[in-house]
Description:
Layout: H1 8-17, E1 26-36, E2 39-43, E3 49-53, E4 69-74, E5 82-90, H2 92-101, E6 109-112, E7 115-118, H3 119-136, H4 157-164
Parallel strand pairs: 3-5
Antiparallel strand pairs: 1-2, 1-4, 2-3, 4-5, 6-7
Amino acid sequence: MKPAPVKRKKNREDALFSKPEPDGSEAVMRVKSAQGANLYMLEDASAGTELYELPKALRHVLLIRPGSYVIAGRYDSPTSKVVGEISHVLLKQQIDHLVETGKWPDYFASVENGSILTAANQLAENEVQNITIVEEQSSDDLPENTNRRHWDVQESSSEDESNES
Length: 165
């Protein structure tokens, strides 16, 4: 007997357009890394990291990257290393809604003018600054690549003689 099909269209609409808020047993968490097999290492507001599972209904709906924010709840009695389940993957509009309602944890971000400055954004800004510093350095400091042949291009004297006549 086959399992009931997942209603992907409804799940996608719920994930994109709903305004989820964490319940009493749920919390906003940041994704630290993907562990494989739909398992993710999440960081909570107390800076602790634990393993959470992505439910089947959300597996092919949204992409979860390290640095993304999710709403996750703990199992009543975890029997393995997996301690809970991800219920929502938060998008920028949903994060802004949580900030407006005051349910966004202060640990994850500082709020300025309604926009969120996350640690990931700050790291991205630092990388951009480092790239510009590297571009400003001249390439004259680099040694010659010994893995390439050095070709001396010289014009032949026969071409000069044909142009003179």
